[in-house]
Amino acid sequence: MSAASGARRHLIDLSPLRESPAFARLWAGNAIAGVGNQMTVVAVGLHIYELTGSTFAVAMVGGVALVPMIIAGLYGGMLADAFDRRLVAMVSALIAWGSIAGIAAVAWFGIDLLWPLYVLTCINTIASTIIGTSRQAILPRLLPARLLPAAGALSGMSVGIMVTVGPALAGVLVAFVGIPWTYTVDVILFTAAFLGIATLPAIRPEGETHRPGLRSLISGLSFLRRAPNIRASYLIDIIAMTFGRPHSLFPAVAAVLLGGGAITVGILTAAVAVGTMISSLFSGSIGAVRRHGLAIGYAVITYGASILAFGIVLVVSLGQPVTAELSGANWLAIGGATLALLGAGAADNVSMIYRNTMLLVAVPDNMRGRMQGIFTVVVSGGPRVGDLYIGLAALGAVLWFPPVLGGLLIIALAAVLLRFQPTFRHYDALEPTP
């Protein structure tokens, strides 16, 4: 094998795009619409701050939508397990598109009220959550199991593009053409999502189905009680997100320990997304791994070690004078922190790829929507609990303490889970069991 062919083998596997045109359209539509969605997230924050001058008012955008998003994840999963998943995704996409158009109208007509922005962003979050739940449940019907890890890597690549390109593009558009036009660009970009969904065939759940309601929810929870590997995948993600989300520290870290102000915050925030993209770019051999549970455990331990390294960088930078100006920043420490967060983003992406693959392959088709819905609750709630942990652990302005303790806890708890959950540790992708 030549060096060139060996290098290509390690690059991201594009087979899912070649072998399934339906997946390719769905993936491309989601990526394009996702860039627009991230633009609107930034623009809404700037819009609300322009109206109120309040950081709290901006933060309430996520707070208002949290409980509805959790409910939407659970209910959307039941919808996906009861009806044609293409239809569920299409109706949800129409509602999401209408909410974005409504936000744009608020801006164009100069309506200086907060509540329409809160209501419309909440509706958009609910609809987007149901789209995501339905889309994930659709994937195993479009691709063979052997290509699902590669599909997960492609999803990681698209997420990395969304969270880097979207906010940057929003900043440029808001600065040069204004907030209304920024929303309008998202309205246009979101139409790409319709192309991916509308061209799918009808995808009805296979096996016994229940109409959305208490019986359906109880059936899903009963299945989860009998699915130790899926439970373990949820639990290990909660561990990582609870103790390993230092994002809310970035502004204080940039002001007190590293210097550089907003530029440093932007670098640290982008580092996680860039790590995600890099690991996806070099994920060509990820589909060859059979022990998915073990891979998830090692990835989460690596994630914990990366968060610990970030904390150690903060400890080392203690006592060094810094300023908010670029000339007064501690660039050596910023470089070390960036490398640690690159590692965290890469490790989290690897864990995500195998967790999603396990969820899609090991779970019966008629349960995939509900398990995705419960996973949405995990993914949504974990970072919020993580922010609470950071806030409590950082009391007294000891900024290095939360990532140091959090990294150690992640490493220890993930190792304990692997030790005492043998079915998860021995999970074999060729003989998947929930």
UniProtKB/TrEMBL annotation:
Keywords: Cell membrane, Membrane, Transmembrane, Transmembrane helix, Transport. It is a multi-pass membrane protein. SUPFAM superfamilies: MFS general substrate transporter (SSF103473). It comes from the Bacteria. Pfam families: MFS_3. The chain crosses the membrane at residues 26-49, 55-75, 87-111, 117-138, 150-177, 183-203, 249-282, 294-319, 331-354, 374-392, 398-418. GO terms for cellular component: plasma membrane. Coiled coil: none annotated. InterPro entries: MFS_dom, MFS_trans_sf, TM_effector. Residues 185-434 form the Major facilitator superfamily (MFS) profile domain. PANTHER family: ENTEROBACTIN EXPORTER ENTS (PTHR23513:SF9), INTEGRAL MEMBRANE EFFLUX PROTEIN-RELATED (PTHR23513). This is MFS transporter.
